């Protein structure tokens, strides 16, 4: 599962991986693993546009609906996504 970090080109901002993980735990979903990532989607370089950074979480299959209700999406919906170092 993944969720956008909400950060923007030029200005950054957005949420940390820990903050996204806290959203899952607040929804009673216990991630087995967490990583920073990028959606891999090509975007034009425009300040203020989304930068494609995402939080990637490995969860139990039976918790996917709960995570989706909290705004997380299946990683399979973004085949170009990849893990990157958190910055």
Descriptive overview:
The protein is of the alpha+beta class and 87 residues long. The chain is 18% helix and 20% strand. The chain has two helices and four strands. The protein has helices at 17-26, 64-69; strands at 2-4, 33-38, 53-58, 82-83. The chain is globular.
Strand order in the largest sheet: 1-3-2-4
Proportion of residues in extended strands = 15-25%
Biggest sheet layout: 4 strands, antiparallel
* Span between termini: 20 Å
Order of helices and strands, N to C?
Answer: EHEEHE
By DSSP, the count of extended strands is 4
Low-confidence stretches: none
Helix content: 10-25%
How many helices in DSSP terms? 2
Oligomer: single chain
Shape: globular
Structural class: alpha+beta
Computed over alpha carbons, the radius of gyration is 13 Å
Mean pLDDT: 95
Secondary-structure blueprint of this entry?
Blueprint: E1 2-4, H1 17-26, E2 33-38, E3 53-58, H2 64-69, E4 82-83
Antiparallel strand pairs: 1-3, 2-3, 2-4
């Amino acid at each position: 599962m993944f969720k956008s970090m909400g950060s923007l080109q030029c200005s950054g901002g957005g949420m940390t991986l820990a903050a996204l993980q806290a959203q899952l735990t607040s929804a009673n979903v216990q991630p087995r693993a967490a990583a920073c990532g990028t959606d891999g989607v090509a975007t034009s370089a425009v300040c203020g546009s989304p930068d494609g950074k995402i939080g990637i979480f490995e969860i139990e299959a039976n918790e996917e609906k709960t995570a989706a209700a909290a705004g997380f999406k299946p990683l399979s919906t973004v085949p170009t996504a990849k893990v990157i170092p958190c910055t």
